[in-house]
Amino acid sequence: MATAVVHYAAAAVTDRGRKRSSNEDAFGFSVEHGVYVVCDGMGGAAAGEIASSLAVDEAMSRLTNRDLKVEPQLAAERAIYAANEVIFSRSQRNLSLNGMGTTLVGLLAEDRRVWVINVGDSRCYRLRASRLEQITLDHSLVEEQVRMGRMTPAEALRSSLRNVITRALGTQSRVTPDIFALESEPGDLFLLCSDGLTRELSDAHIQSLLGVDQSLDDLCARLVNAAKKAGGHDNITCLLVRAGT
Description:
With about 240 residues, this protein is an alpha+beta fold. Helices cover about 30% and strands about 30% of the residues. It contains seven helices and ten strands. A hairpin with a 4-residue loop joins strand 2 and strand 3.
């Protein structure tokens, strides 16, 4: 029996939040090429903004122009390596940018096959049949302590080390991404987001906000507004990708 071809639709919103003077998040997507990326930059002055923009531009360029004979997972890895090299080289050439870096969470879709790419603590979730599931694993000190059983989730939420990430693009000459291979189904809704959303809203709250029949643009705005209402301490970016027939 033939399976239905999956088509995708997407929308995104980024907001500086209520406390930050600038927005160091960035995003890019191409439904035509099945490429979706969210980055959250870090560094002094405008360095974080530069790092996230460089990462989005490089990843989008590499993946939208990729050789289709190359396996998507390998293409994704190469895009990450290239983005890391661009940021690291720029920071080495300009002392004012030294130490800048960025998280990256991305999604690459080819019909039902989906690859989720992650470096840092920006996240990818999938909502399927009204159930929200976190796909990525945070590369953060407290989350790694939780996974090892050395800290409870409640302790992680209160920890003063919550901002410490253990992997980022551009801070070292080499970086290794996590890549998760999935199969999508019509009706699946993928959320790529920076931690400005997940620091303010629990997974249960995000699930409830996504569980209404609204356009992707409206759902993005709904998430951002809820995060701002909860405090908006950081920049907030949400990118939604819906699978349909």
